[in-house]
Amino acid sequence: MTPNRSMNLTPKQLRILKLIRDSRVRRGYSPTMQELADEIGVSKVTVFEHVEALIKKGALVRERNKARSLSIAEGIAVPDEDRPLRLPLVGKIAAGYPIEKVASEEELDLSEVLASGDDSGESSFALCVDGDSMRDEGILDGDYILLERAQVAKNGDRVVALLEDGSTTLKTFYKEEDHIRLQPANPDFEPIRVKFCQVQGIVKAVVRRYR
Questions:
Q1: Which of 33, 47, 120, 198 is 20 to 30 Å from 206 by CA-CA measure?
Q2: d(Cα 190, Cα 72) in Å, to the nearest integer?
Q3: 56 belongs to the catalytic site
Q4: Are residues 115 and 12 in the same domain?
Q5: Is 171 a catalytic residue?
Q6: What is the pLDDT of residues 76-102, one digit of tens each?
Q7: How confident is residue 149, by pLDDT bands cut at 50, 70 and 90?
Q8: Catalytic residue among 23, 120, 124, 133
C-alpha cells in the first residue's frame, strides 16, 4: 500500500515516514522525536502529533515502553519519487575475512551507474564489497551489491551474514546437518562454519563501475 495515495498524508507526515525508514535501514533503530523535529524544522510537540496520527492511520507501529521503536507498518510501501534510483549505502561488506560492522550515512545513487530502473529502496539496500573471496562468482573488490532485506536464506543464496562476534561477511549460504557453512568463491579462502548467524540480506544484483 502506498500511504500518500490511500491515507491522505500531509507532506510532513510522509517526510516522517521516510526519515524513520531510512534511519532503521542505516542505523537499525528509529530516530527520536527530537531528531525528527530537527530534521523537518518543527517542534517536538508537532512531531508527536504527526506520529500519533500516522499510528492511527495504520502507517506506523510502535512498541510501548520502548525507546526508538517506531517502524513502518507491514505492507506499507513508502514512495520515493524524488530519488527513485537511490539506495542507502550502509557500509562495506567483507568478501574476504569478516570485518567490524560499520554504519554509513552515504547513499548509492543508481542513476549514476544504471541507465534505467525504478527501485525505490523500500526493501533494498546497497553495500560496497571489500575483498575478493567471492571473486570466482564475479563479485569483485570495489563492486556494489544490491540486496533484498531478508532474515531467512536457502542453500545457494549469496547472503550478507552477521556473525556472533558482531562482524559481517558476504558468502554463499549453506545450512548443513549441525552448522551453517558460509562458502567463499575463491580457493585462497576457507569456509566459515558457525552454529548460528543472522542473515541480513540476499544479493540480487552486482553493480560495477568502470573508470
A1: 198
A2: 39
A3: no
A4: no
A5: yes
A6: 777 655 555 566 667 777 777 776 655
A7: confident
A8: 133
